[in-house]
Design a protein that fits this description.
- This protein has 14 helices and 11 strands.
- It is α/β, with parallel strands linked by helices.
- Strands 3-2-4-5-1-6-11-10-9 form a 9-stranded mixed β-sheet, sandwiched between helices. Strands 7-8 form a two-stranded antiparallel sheet.
- The N and C termini lie far apart (73 Å).
- Residues 19-25 have low confidence and may be disordered.
Length: 436
């Protein structure tokens, strides 16, 4: 009887191993053909002084709120060339559905137009479309707006993700990747953005005023392919995506939440003062999963041994932080804010060179939400850092609370002299000193 059970277990194990191996070799490779980031018109540039001037002239903020915003701007890591829609530079700000639509159409059409120009892909060849924007969700949806504007084919697989925060860009990549596994010979277009007009807060709740100070205008369009013929011209292959969701914990769920303030009943997005703690916990959970796929075996063993020792023998033991620089050449960290960058640099023990692309993106473009990791990657390309075989780690955080990672592998050297991206005309000015 025992021998039969052992034989059965062995057979089941063998079948599982074969199924896993078969699944891996049969997965379609997904390529990132190219991407484009939108660079707004100079008329949308908003210096720190102009931001505070417009906030004061609006007549909606108390003196204490203006002082609070001034302190946030001083510590923001921003430069003097971030962008907001022109509607918010009016006095008073022109906050309306029409202006929100105008802003969104300008950034997503601008990004898509540049992407189509770079890739020479015909719109009729696009079979999958995924758009994401957290706060602005009109009817018809953003994905329908894209279909209508570009006259995409009637049987396109179209999806619109809403309310999913700054990490939704990588969620969109994951969704497209899953769809490309079951739809052969397809192109997937992903568009990631956030709407600044519809998210602008005109009250005096400090936890909601922070978003006015940090979020800025931008969008990214990315073209994915599962055609083997695209392996020669694509920039990257998509290796791994790891998604971590802490929404089952009430504190994490409520740390970024849209609601009305308590006094004026004005809608805004409130950020918890403990946000960085939740981000750290989500990151640790995410890298614990990701590390199994990307870290050298010795690093995994070091992490596992200290984890076991801390859990069962010495709870005061400092957990071992794996050296992710052994797994990646480049780190594209979401430009959520200077505190986010400082926190990740400490947790992951990254150098200033590693953080430079993210810090410079925050300085030049601000927090462009779900598109930010693509502006960071564009910086790496413009600096001539990307070489064939390089591994890139994109990390993003968002409401929910979520931490998502994507791992890319460069398929060729990226020559900055032959590339056009939002950094091209001014990359020689960077890096700059952003120390406060």
């Amino acid at each position: 009887m025992t021998s039969h059970v052992s034989s059965l277990l062995l057979l089941c194990s063998l079948i599982a191993s074969i199924a896993t191996f078969y699944h891996k070799i049969c997965q379609r490779k997904v390529y990132i053909v190219d991407f484009a980031c939108y660079k707004p018109d100079p008329a949308c540039i908003c210096t720190k002084e102009l931001f505070l001037e417009k906030s004061t002239c609006s007549g909606r903020f108390h003196d204490e709120s203006i002082d609070f915003q001034r302190k946030i701007m001083d510590r923001s890591g921003f430069g003097q060339k971030t962008y907001v829609p022109e509607s918010l530079l009016e006095t008073p700000p022109n906050i309306s559905g029409a202006e929100a639509r105008k802003e969104t159409e300008s950034v997503i059409f601008g990004a898509i137009d540049e992407l189509l120009l770079k890739t020479n892909v015909k719109v009729d060849d696009i079979g999958i479309l995924v758009t994401n924007c957290c706060l602005f969700n009109p009817t018809p949806s953003l994905s329908a707006i894209v279909v209508n504007h570009y006259k995409l084919k009637h049987n396109i697989l179209s999806y619109n993700l809403s309310g999913m925060g700054c990490s939704a860009g990588l969620l969109s990549i994951d969704l497209a990747k899953q769809l490309l596994q079951v739809h052969p010979n397809s192109y997937a277009l992903i568009v990631s953005t956030e709407n600044i007009n519809s998210g602008w807060y005109m009250g005096n709740n400090r936890s909601m005023l922070v978003t006015n100070c940090l979020f800025r205008m931008g969008a990214a369009a990315i073209l994915l392919s599962n055609l083997s013929s695209d392996s020669c011209r694509s920039k990257y292959s998509l290796s791994h995506i790891v998604r971590t969701h802490k929404g089952s914990q009430d504190d994490c769920y409520n740390c970024i939440i849209q609601k009305e303030d308590e006094t004026q009943r004005i809608t805004g997005v409130a950020l918890s003062k403990d946000l960085m703690n939740y981000a750290g916990d989500a990151l640790k959970a995410n890298i614990s999963t990701l590390g199994k796929s990307v870290l050298p075996l010795m690093e995994q063993l070091k992490f596992l041994s200290t984890f076991v020792a801390k859990k069962y023998f010495n709870k005061r033991m400092k957990p071992y932080t794996p050296d992710f620089k052994l797994a990646f050449e480049h780190f594209c960290i979401h430009t959520g804010g200077k505190a986010v960058q400082d926190g990740l640099q400490k947790i992951l023990e990254l150098s200033d060179w590693d953080l430079e692309p993210s810090r410079m993106t925050l300085y030049r473009y601000g927090n462009t939400s779900s598109s930010s990791v693509w502006y960071v990657l564009a910086y790496c390309e413009a600096k001539g850092r990307i070489k064939k075989g390089d591994r890139i780690w994109q990390i993003a955080f968002g409401s929910g609370f979520k931490c998502n990672s994507a791992v890319l592998c460069a398929l060729r050297n990226i020559d900055p002299t032959k590339e056009k991206n939002p950094w091209t005309d001014e990359i020689q000015e960077f890096p700059v000193n952003v120390a406060n």
